[in-house]
Amino acid sequence: MPAIAPYGDYTDEAMPPKVSVAAVMGRVERLEEQRDEASARLRVELDELRKQFAAVVARPMEVDNIRFPPRMVAAIVASAITVFGGMYASTYGLRSDVRDILTTLANQERIKVEQQKLVDEKQRLADERFQSLRDAVGVIDKRQQLQQIETQELKEMVLQTRSRTNE
């Protein structure tokens, strides 16, 4: 590796070789020739491709003459199966999801109905219990009144008996 002096100064050993103008012009001419040859080859190939394309377009298309390589047939079949399989899977999954949602909604509605029946039954039982307690209180109240009447009658009898015995 050539030595480079500090601050970017070149030493005599590191100086690039001097190139003549004639050498550069020779190189440019060679490159132009190569470019012209490559362009000519491309034009010839393009003309051949245009002729082949024109021949293909000019002849009528016969379906019987179409032949697909096995790899292409396998790719087409695999693509079709994939598309149809995806459609079937998504449709089945969607149906399943909708069915699950409908089942859940039906179960929730049934649970609400059963809960309402339970609440109604509890209310009916509470009303019956209240009525039976009211009836029991009424019976007890009537018994108290009867006892008061019987007690009053006994008092009156006792007082009448005393007053008769005292007379």
Structural class: mainly alpha
Task: Name the overall outline.
Answer: rod-shaped
Distance between the termini: 163 Å
What Rg is obtained from the alpha carbons, in whole angstroms?
58 Å
Strand content: under 5%
How are helices and strands ordered from N to C? HH
Structure description:
The structure is a single chain. The protein has 167 residues and is mainly α. The protein has 2 domains: 18-66; 68-167. The chain has helices at 21-58, 70-166.
Structure characteristics:
167 residues, 2 domains, 2 helices
Q: What is the element layout, followed by pairings?
A:
Layout: H1 21-58, H2 70-166
Explain briefly what this protein structure is.
Helix content is 81%, strand content 0%. It has helices at residues 21-58, 70-166.
